[in-house]
Design a protein that fits this description.
Oligomer: single chain
Bound molecules: zinc ion
Largest sheet: 8 strands, mixed
Helix content: 25-40%
Structural class: alpha/beta
Shape: elongated
Strand content: 15-25%
Length: 438
């Protein structure tokens, strides 16, 4: 961490030296870039009212994972109205993809927004309060969808200046498909979202309420944890609660297992490696005076390193095997991958940061620590190098800073214009950097 930070400050120093070079020595290319940046800025500003209205509409009509029928219909209609090509619906349930082909030759870059809401009751007293009882956009995916539609609108009017193709991906079920259903990034990929054409890079953004609207935050390298859900069943033997010696008590064995699993991180894994093992649910037993023959537990494991992930899974199995064997019980352990490691390709991050700094100002671009929550954008990054950054949506002065997944989560809508400006520039900048040289 420390080493990375010092190189980051060296980079800031270097880029501030570079920007202090007098304008006269700036290349023609740079002047063209700034004219284009101004054009994008003006186009995004002119969309302000429309972006706010669009976000409020999505916010008032939130839809749960794999149920984004209305949202995806609006998205597809809008993309068609903007003249985008190859608008495909039903890609991974309610997923939508579309292409914007520039007038100049070049590579393909993708941008992804997620569309689903959460089973949370809104408590904010705002004019755009969710109209669906018990469902709310509490992760800001309404803002993600709105920003990506704004980017499509701005760039659809700039085809002459686009060197290559932009693939727009609107994804359902980021928060996880309902039990027994497939969904999210993995299903979109399975159904071809990253082919024809395959993008050479992919970008995405997520709201971040702990930083102010107008700011962008990022982490280069492993940025969000891999997430594995696990299911444990401890199998014992029931008997009279007053005669435990004739049974095998699954409750006592489960209790010892819960504590032992916590010791994996503190004593068996390098303490410098992040690892979370959380048991969130325990169920077992039939009656207060019967020795329980079965206890079921469910939990989540978060890691930032594939070796640690594999090692921790092996150690969990080993721990459960030995504890249950010691008391004559048996066990089952099953893992379900919920999210891969969100890995921001360092070279791509370094190549993108100068443009982000130009758009929001150097002081507004923050390097932050990785997050333990997972993000299924990670699956797109397994196919193409990607950069997932954070869009500041907080406003402390107005009391907007509730965390993700809470009943009072909200965003400062000023962030929508910022999001459109930054992402539009990032995509064009990437295509320019990879333009076909004549
Ligand atoms: Zn979320
Ligand atoms: Zn989210």
């Amino acid at each position: 961490m420390r080493r990375r930070r010092s190189s980051f400050f060296a980079f800031i120093l270097l880029s501030s030296l570079l920007t202090s070079i007098p304008q006269s020595s700036a290349s023609k290319h740079t002047r063209l870039d700034s004219a284009r940046e101004q054009k994008i800025a003006q186009a995004a500003e002119s969309l302000r009212t429309q972006l706010v209205a669009q976000r409020r509409d999505f916010h008032m009509h939130p839809e749960l994972s794999n149920r984004e029928e209305r949202t995806s219909r609006i998205v597809a209609e809008r993309l068609r109205a903007l003249g985008l090509e190859d608008v495909k619906t039903g890609v991974g349930k309610y997923g939508v993809t579309a292409l914007l082909r520039g007038a100049k030759p070049g590579t393909t870059v993708a941008v992804r927004a997620d569309m689903d809401a959460l089973p949370i009751q809104e408590i904010n007293d705002v004019p755009y309060k969710s109209q669906v009882a018990g469902v709310k956009h509490a992760c800001g995916h309404d803002a993600h969808t709105t920003v990506e539609l704004g980017v499509a609108e701005v760039l659809s009017k700039m085809r002459a200046e686009i060197a290559g193709t932009i693939k727009f991906i609107f994804q359902p079920a980021e928060e996880g498909a309902p039990a027994g259903e497939e969904g999210g990034a993995r299903l979109m990929i399975k159904e071809g979202a990253m082919e024809n054409p395959r993008p050479s890079a992919i970008f995405g953004l997520h709201t971040l309420p702990s930083i102010e609207a107008g700011q962008i935050a990022y982490h280069s390298g492993p940025a969000m944890a891999a997430s594995d859900r696990f299911f444990i069943t401890i199998k014992g033997k029931s008997s009279h609660g007053a005669q435990p010696q004739t049974g095998v008590d699954a409750v006592v064995i489960a209790s010892e297992s819960v504590m032992a699993l916590q010791i994996i991180h503190s004593r068996r894994i390098d303490p410098q490696e992040p690892l979370v093992i959380t048991i969130g649910q325990i169920q077992g037993g039939k009656r207060y005076n019967i020795i329980a023959d079965e206890v079921r537990m469910e939990g989540t494991m978060r890691t930032f390193n594939e070796d640690v992930r594999q090692r921790a899974q092996t150690l969990m199995r080993e721990t459960l095997l030995n504890i249950t064997a010691a008391y004559g019980a048996t066990f089952e352990l099953k893992f379900e991958e919920n999210g891969a490691l969100t890995f921001n390709e360092p070279k791509l991050v370094e190549a993108t940061l100068p443009m982000i700094r130009r758009v929001v100002g150097e002081q507004n671009v923050l390097s932050i620590k990785p997050f333990m929550p997972a993000e299924d954008f990670s699956y797109f990054q397994k196919i193409s190098p990607g950069f997932y950054y954070f869009l500041g949506v907080g406003n402390r002065a107005r009391g907007i800073n509730a965390p993700w997944h809470t009943a009072d989560f909200d965003i400062d809508e000023e962030s929508l214009v910022v999001g459109v400006k930054v992402m539009s520039n990032v995509l064009l900048d990437y295509l320019d950097q990879h333009a076909v040289k004549k």
